[in-house]
Amino acid sequence: MKIGNINFADRPLFLAPMEDVTDIGFRRLCKRFGAAMVYTEFVSAEALVRSVKSTVSKLTIDDTERPVGIQIYGRDVPQMVEAARIVEEMAHPDVIDINFGCPVKKVAGKGAGAGMLQNIPLLLDITREVVKAVNTPVTVKTRLGWNNEQIVITTLAEQLQDCGIQALTIHGRTRSQMYTGNADWTLIGEVKNNPRINIPIIGNG
Q1: Each residue of 28-81: pLDDT tens digit?
Q2: Is 41 helix (H, G, I), strand (E, B) or coil?
Q3: Handedness of CA 107, 113, 116, 118 (dihedral sign)
Q4: What residues contact residue 107 under an 8 Å CB cut-off, 6+ apart?
Q5: What is the percentage of the chain residues whose pLDDT exceeds 90?
Q6: Which residues contact 1 (CB under 8 A, 6 or more apart)?
Q7: Which one from 102, 138, 140, 170 is the annotated catalytic residue?
Q8: Is the CB of residue 1 less than 8 Å from the CB of residue 8?
Q9: What is the pLDDT of residue 10?
Q10: Is residue 84 within 8 Å of 133, Cβ to Cβ?
């Protein structure tokens, strides 16, 4: 498995980005115990562009935790592009990940995170422009869809790949499920087995 120039084993275990959990100490601990790649807590593009101190501090990474990804979220194309450039210039991460999966109301309810699943054209615009703006490999994390009536992942995965992302993480739930019920690994497998998909697919949930 390969993301950008990073080579992994066939079935690597990644530490998922988790707000208020995956700070630098936790990431270094997980790395020590075998995580192939770790991710920061997600970073608000709007707050990063405004240089909010607590947000900027999330960009602190240590060489001992590499390869490391920094995840950003937002709903505005110029802000997401600028945030990605700031991340690249300040932290030099191995991967920039875009969050289209957070289901919590304060994020999704404002149209960011999983809220982007209700505006696929904008989601794709953000992805395409961020990919063009940076040299760092760009990846995406998202969900199966907004709800059970709007399962979009099989089509969306191809669209995201066409935008130039270098890996896709799929949380096997819809936004409406939040963190309840069982993750649907069948749909994740369907994306993985799609002959048109040639980027790594990472299962989550």
Answers
A1: 999 999 999 999 999 999 999 999 999 999 999 999 999 999 999 999 999 999
A2: coil
A3: negative
A4: 73, 113, 114, 115
A5: 89
A6: 7, 8, 9, 10, 11, 12, 200
A7: 102
A8: yes
A9: 87
A10: yes
Contacts 24+ apart (CB under 8 A), 1-5: 1/200, 2/200, 3/95, 3/137, 3/139, 3/166, 3/167, 3/200, 4/94, 4/95, 4/136, 4/137, 4/166, 5/137
End-to-end CA distance of the chain: 20
The full length of the chain comes to 205
Phi, psi (5° rounding) for residue 151? Answer: -85, 115
* Helix axis angle, 153-163 to 120-133, nearest 10°: 30
Spatial distance between the Cα atoms of 187 and 172, rounded to a whole number of angstroms: 7
Please give the model's pTM, rounded to 2 decimal places: 0.95
Residue 95: the pLDDT is 97
Q: Quickly tell me which residue has 């069982």 as its tokens.
A: 182
Q: How far apart are CA 88 and CA 90, in angstroms?
A: 6
Give the residue among 119, 200, 125, 132 at the shortest CA–CA distance from 164. Answer: 132
Residue 80 has which token pair?
């997401």
Is 102 one of the catalytic residues? yes
Of all helices (H) and strands (E), which one includes residue 185? helix 185-192
Amino acid in the structure at residue 92: H
